[in-house]
Amino acid sequence: MMKITRTADLERLRRLALASQGLLPMAPFGQGLAGTHDAIKHLGYVQIDTISVVERAHHHVLHTRVPKFQPEMIHRLLASGRIFEYWSHAAAFLPMDDFRFSLPYKKAIQSGQVHWYKNPDKKQMAELLARIRSDGPLRSRDLEAHKNASSAGWWDWKPAKKALEQLYMEGELMVSHREGFQKVYDLTERVLPSHIDSSLPSAEEYAAHLLDQQLCCHGFVSLKGLTYLRRNTELRQAMKSLVLDGLHQGVLEEIELGDGERFLIPSGVFDQRAPRLSHRLSILSPFDNSVIQRDRLRSVFQFDYQIECYVPEPKRQYGYFCLPLLFRGEFIGRMDCKAHRKERRLEIKSLYLEKSIETSGFDVDLLLSAFVDAIKAFSQFQQCDSVTLTSMEPKHLTQVFQLAFK
Predict the structure, then answer these.
(1) The predicted structure's pLDDT at residue 360
(2) Axis-axis angle for helices 72-79, 57-65 (nearest 10)
């Protein structure tokens, strides 16, 4: 086992993590529509979220990595069958080529595992399925349009919506496309491209897929992270066996950080030349693939991060929807902001730089220049023309940063 004790080795590990996530090169996956598809394929999933104080998370994640990304590109990839929607550790867009690895969870839901709803209404599900088969795709809004408080059929909206979602989670339905943010459901047999493998993978095949995919997009992984939020005992056992076999054969090696956390890395990767740092500042989504595993983030980057939109307001430390800030291989702060779309103004409610910034030798002028460049691109992405900064820590830099946006 290799113990990471030197600062230079930790920095090398961080660069590997960020490069694997596509956060160091300028256009690691290419540009536009093709780059968007390749980014989703490389990352394995892009989490969907409904919060829209700034551009939604799935758009934000791709904007960070793909030059010339436009939100409508996701709709085009979905409608053309190159990606699909389903559950990863959360609702997500996934590469269509990985469709078969969504089947174990669908089978578990079919067998009675609860996702959202207990005791699904099988009769109503059958009626809905028959309706979609005969009449074509359906939106949940179509159910709402026919709701009737005195009725008990499929048009009774709340039970019908539950039935629709249950059919989706069980795999009978897929999202064929979206109209705005509204999902349109159709039969899986009509949405799934004919060339896609739809055979149920074994636990061993699923584990091998996750190990390869996670090492590709993260560079190194923990055993816990490999099955992050997946409650599949058979999968976890298969993963443990696969990892032990990899260690025994020498294709994997184990590294240990100063806090005792252990990670798995392909043998020899750590000895290769470290990826080059980027001097761009990146504004990340709270649901970005690089920060979603908070324990890993804390261990590797010493960045203690929590999204606070689910925290009662009096208990919030940094704000409702704080975005992590990445600069030169380190998470240097976070900012809480809101896009006032009618005013076309991006408000930075609060900007917090880590206390270590001023003691670590960071060039404040270089940081300010990178931050201004990042904010300009980010505000354009929000369709905002102006930026305002309300408060900042450390306070003595507030005026300098405020003047930079004038």
Answers:
(1) 66
(2) 100
Pair (227, 158) in one structural domain? no
281-283 and 262-266: which strand pairing? unpaired
Q: Please identify, among 212, 247, 268, the residue that sits at the C-terminal boundary of a domain.
A: 268
Q: Is 233 helix (H, G, I), strand (E, B) or coil?
A: helix
Token pair for 115: 């996702």
Q: 264 lies in which domain range? A: 2-8+200-268
Say what the pLDDT of residue 22 is.
97
pLDDT at 153: 44
* Packing angle, helices 203-218 and 7-20, rounded to 10: 110
What's the pLDDT score for residue 54?
96
Separation of alpha carbons 145 and 123, rounded Å: 21
Assess contact for 46 and 80: CB atoms under 8 A: no
pLDDT, residue 151, reads 47
Q: Are 229 and 313 part of one and the same domain?
A: no
Q: Which pLDDT score, from 0 to 100, does residue 19 have?
A: 96
What is the C-alpha end-to-end distance of the chain, expressed in Å? 53
pLDDT means per 10 residues, the chain with 406 residues, are 89 96 94 98 96 95 97 96 94 97 96 86 93 92 60 56 93 93 93 97 97 97 89 92 97 94 94 87 97 95 93 92 95 96 96 80 85 96 95 91 84
C-beta of residue 11 within 8 angstroms of C-beta of residue 24: no
pLDDT at residue 68 in the model: 94
89 and 161 part of one domain:
yes
Q: Are residues 187 and 205 in the same domain?
A: no
State the pLDDT at residue 181: 81
Q: What is the token pair recorded at 19?
A: 């490069």
Query: Tokens for 357?
Result: 């910034």
- Same domain, yes or no, for 136 and 251? no
Residue 363's Cβ-side half-sphere holds a number of Cα atoms within 13 Å equal to 6
Give, as one character, the DSSP assignment of residue 59: H
Q: Is residue 104 part of a domain?
A: yes
Question: What's the half-sphere exposure (Cβ side, CA atoms, 13 Å) at 85?
Answer: 23
Residues 37 and 174 in one domain: yes
Q: What CA–CA distance (Å, rounded) separates 272 from 278?
A: 18
Q: Is residue 129 part of a domain?
A: yes
- Distance (Å, whole) CA 164 – CA 184: 11
Neighbours of 356 (CB within 10 A): 11
The answer to whether 157 and 147 are in contact (CB under 8 A) is: yes
Q: Do 264 and 351 reside in the same domain of the chain?
A: no
| Residue 156, pLDDT score | 46
